User: What shape does this take?
Amino acid sequence: MIDYREPLNGILPHLSREKAPEYFREEVGPLLVAMWAQDYASNAPRCELLETSDAGFSYLFDVTAERLVAAWGISRGKNQESRAVIATRMKGHPLNNSGRYHRGHAIAHTLGGRTDINLVPQLGKINSGPFRALEAKAVSCPGALYFTYWRYSVGDGQVPIGVEQGLLCPGEPACAFELKTFGN
Assistant: This one.
Protein backbone atom coordinates (compact mmCIF):
# COMPACT_ATOMS: atom_id res chain seq x y z
CA MET A 1 0.00 0.00 0.00
CA ILE A 2 1.23 3.48 -0.84
CA ASP A 3 1.74 5.92 2.04
CA TYR A 4 -0.31 8.88 0.79
CA ARG A 5 -0.42 10.78 4.07
CA GLU A 6 3.20 11.91 4.18
CA PRO A 7 3.20 13.81 0.85
CA LEU A 8 -0.36 15.07 1.35
CA ASN A 9 -0.02 16.21 4.97
CA GLY A 10 1.84 19.36 3.99
CA ILE A 11 -0.76 20.27 1.37
CA LEU A 12 -4.19 19.48 2.74
CA PRO A 13 -4.36 21.56 5.93
CA HIS A 14 -3.81 24.77 3.94
CA LEU A 15 -6.10 24.04 1.00
CA SER A 16 -9.23 26.18 0.73
CA ARG A 17 -12.47 24.94 -0.80
CA GLU A 18 -12.22 27.53 -3.59
CA LYS A 19 -8.68 26.61 -4.63
CA ALA A 20 -9.00 22.83 -4.18
CA PRO A 21 -10.20 21.70 -7.65
CA GLU A 22 -7.48 23.62 -9.49
CA TYR A 23 -4.84 22.49 -7.01
CA PHE A 24 -6.03 18.89 -7.30
CA ARG A 25 -5.62 19.07 -11.10
CA GLU A 26 -2.33 20.94 -11.20
CA GLU A 27 -0.44 19.63 -8.14
CA VAL A 28 -2.05 16.65 -6.43
CA GLY A 29 -2.94 14.70 -9.60
CA PRO A 30 0.66 14.71 -10.93
CA LEU A 31 1.97 13.83 -7.45
CA LEU A 32 -0.36 10.82 -7.26
CA VAL A 33 0.56 9.71 -10.81
CA ALA A 34 4.25 9.76 -9.89
CA MET A 35 3.59 7.71 -6.75
CA TRP A 36 1.44 5.17 -8.62
CA ALA A 37 3.93 4.87 -11.50
CA GLN A 38 6.84 4.21 -9.14
CA ASP A 39 4.91 1.65 -7.09
CA TYR A 40 3.44 -0.09 -10.12
CA ALA A 41 6.79 -0.31 -11.96
CA SER A 42 8.32 -2.09 -8.96
CA ASN A 43 6.11 -5.12 -9.84
CA ALA A 44 5.93 -4.54 -13.60
CA PRO A 45 9.39 -3.38 -14.75
CA ARG A 46 8.50 -3.82 -18.45
CA CYS A 47 5.45 -1.57 -18.17
CA GLU A 48 4.71 1.22 -20.61
CA LEU A 49 2.44 3.67 -18.84
CA LEU A 50 0.15 5.98 -20.74
CA GLU A 51 -2.03 8.73 -19.27
CA THR A 52 -5.27 9.54 -21.03
CA SER A 53 -8.57 11.30 -20.27
CA ASP A 54 -12.24 10.70 -20.92
CA ALA A 55 -15.29 12.67 -19.81
CA GLY A 56 -13.27 14.78 -17.36
CA PHE A 57 -11.50 11.87 -15.67
CA SER A 58 -7.92 10.69 -16.14
CA TYR A 59 -6.60 7.16 -16.47
CA LEU A 60 -3.16 5.61 -16.11
CA PHE A 61 -2.97 2.54 -18.35
CA ASP A 62 -0.22 -0.05 -18.85
CA VAL A 63 -0.03 -0.54 -22.62
CA THR A 64 2.26 -3.58 -22.31
CA ALA A 65 -0.02 -5.55 -19.97
CA GLU A 66 -3.21 -3.96 -21.39
CA ARG A 67 -4.66 -3.09 -18.00
CA LEU A 68 -5.82 -0.09 -16.02
CA VAL A 69 -3.49 1.08 -13.26
CA ALA A 70 -5.30 4.12 -11.83
CA ALA A 71 -8.22 6.46 -12.43
CA TRP A 72 -8.89 9.88 -10.90
CA GLY A 73 -10.79 13.10 -11.31
CA ILE A 74 -12.76 15.91 -9.75
CA SER A 75 -16.32 15.16 -8.65
CA ARG A 76 -18.99 17.18 -10.42
CA GLY A 77 -21.71 15.74 -8.20
CA LYS A 78 -24.28 13.23 -9.38
CA ASN A 79 -24.10 12.22 -13.01
CA GLN A 80 -27.59 12.46 -14.55
CA GLU A 81 -26.81 10.30 -17.60
CA SER A 82 -28.87 7.12 -17.84
CA ARG A 83 -27.08 3.78 -17.41
CA ALA A 84 -28.74 2.71 -20.67
CA VAL A 85 -26.18 4.89 -22.47
CA ILE A 86 -23.33 2.68 -21.24
CA ALA A 87 -25.11 -0.68 -21.15
CA THR A 88 -24.35 -1.60 -24.76
CA ARG A 89 -20.64 -0.78 -24.32
CA MET A 90 -20.39 -2.91 -21.17
CA LYS A 91 -21.80 -5.99 -22.91
CA GLY A 92 -18.61 -6.37 -24.96
CA HIS A 93 -16.26 -6.09 -21.98
CA PRO A 94 -14.97 -9.50 -20.89
CA LEU A 95 -15.57 -10.94 -17.45
CA ASN A 96 -13.13 -13.18 -15.62
CA ASN A 97 -14.81 -15.96 -13.64
CA SER A 98 -18.10 -14.11 -14.08
CA GLY A 99 -19.69 -15.78 -11.09
CA ARG A 100 -17.35 -13.88 -8.77
CA TYR A 101 -16.34 -10.78 -10.72
CA HIS A 102 -18.21 -7.76 -12.01
CA ARG A 103 -17.29 -5.26 -14.66
CA GLY A 104 -16.39 -2.76 -11.93
CA HIS A 105 -16.10 0.93 -12.73
CA ALA A 106 -12.83 2.52 -11.62
CA ILE A 107 -14.77 5.81 -11.66
CA ALA A 108 -18.40 5.14 -10.72
CA HIS A 109 -21.10 5.79 -13.29
CA THR A 110 -22.78 8.01 -10.69
CA LEU A 111 -19.67 10.25 -10.87
CA GLY A 112 -19.65 10.26 -14.67
CA GLY A 113 -17.35 7.31 -15.32
CA ARG A 114 -18.00 5.61 -18.62
CA THR A 115 -16.92 2.16 -19.87
CA ASP A 116 -14.04 0.67 -21.85
CA ILE A 117 -10.82 1.80 -20.13
CA ASN A 118 -12.84 2.55 -16.97
CA LEU A 119 -13.85 -1.11 -16.42
CA VAL A 120 -11.86 -3.51 -14.23
CA PRO A 121 -12.61 -7.10 -13.13
CA GLN A 122 -13.73 -6.49 -9.55
CA LEU A 123 -15.05 -8.93 -6.96
CA GLY A 124 -18.81 -8.59 -6.90
CA LYS A 125 -18.93 -8.59 -3.09
CA ILE A 126 -16.63 -5.52 -3.07
CA ASN A 127 -18.12 -3.74 -6.09
CA SER A 128 -21.70 -4.07 -4.84
CA GLY A 129 -20.77 -3.62 -1.20
CA PRO A 130 -18.18 -1.52 0.65
CA PHE A 131 -16.74 0.10 -2.49
CA ARG A 132 -19.92 2.10 -2.94
CA ALA A 133 -19.59 4.06 0.32
CA LEU A 134 -16.67 6.23 -0.82
CA GLU A 135 -18.17 6.56 -4.30
CA ALA A 136 -21.32 7.98 -2.68
CA LYS A 137 -19.26 10.43 -0.62
CA ALA A 138 -17.51 11.58 -3.79
CA VAL A 139 -20.86 12.15 -5.49
CA SER A 140 -22.07 14.21 -2.51
CA CYS A 141 -18.92 16.37 -2.46
CA PRO A 142 -18.55 18.28 -5.76
CA GLY A 143 -14.99 19.58 -6.09
CA ALA A 144 -13.49 16.54 -4.34
CA LEU A 145 -10.71 14.47 -5.88
CA TYR A 146 -11.66 10.80 -6.17
CA PHE A 147 -9.24 8.07 -7.21
CA THR A 148 -8.70 4.34 -7.53
CA TYR A 149 -5.30 2.65 -7.80
CA TRP A 150 -5.41 -0.99 -8.92
CA ARG A 151 -2.74 -3.34 -7.62
CA TYR A 152 -1.61 -6.42 -9.57
CA SER A 153 0.60 -9.38 -8.78
CA VAL A 154 3.87 -9.77 -10.67
CA GLY A 155 3.14 -10.74 -14.27
CA ASP A 156 0.66 -9.65 -16.89
CA GLY A 157 -2.63 -10.90 -15.39
CA GLN A 158 -5.76 -8.89 -16.02
CA VAL A 159 -7.39 -9.30 -12.61
CA PRO A 160 -6.16 -6.88 -9.94
CA ILE A 161 -5.25 -8.32 -6.53
CA GLY A 162 -6.41 -5.19 -4.74
CA VAL A 163 -7.49 -1.58 -5.01
CA GLU A 164 -6.78 1.61 -3.09
CA GLN A 165 -9.76 3.94 -3.18
CA GLY A 166 -9.29 7.52 -2.06
CA LEU A 167 -11.18 10.77 -1.62
CA LEU A 168 -9.82 14.23 -0.89
CA CYS A 169 -12.80 16.36 0.04
CA PRO A 170 -12.32 20.12 0.44
CA GLY A 171 -13.85 21.54 3.57
CA GLU A 172 -13.46 24.26 6.13
CA PRO A 173 -11.00 24.77 7.61
CA ALA A 174 -9.09 21.88 6.00
CA CYS A 175 -9.31 19.23 3.33
CA ALA A 176 -10.21 15.74 4.54
CA PHE A 177 -8.51 12.63 3.16
CA GLU A 178 -10.11 9.20 3.29
CA LEU A 179 -8.52 5.99 2.02
CA LYS A 180 -10.00 2.50 1.74
CA THR A 181 -8.16 -0.64 0.64
CA PHE A 182 -9.78 -3.81 -0.64
CA GLY A 183 -8.48 -7.19 -1.72
CA ASN A 184 -9.70 -8.42 -5.05
In short: The first strand starts at residue 49 and ends at 54. The chain has a mean pLDDT of 87.
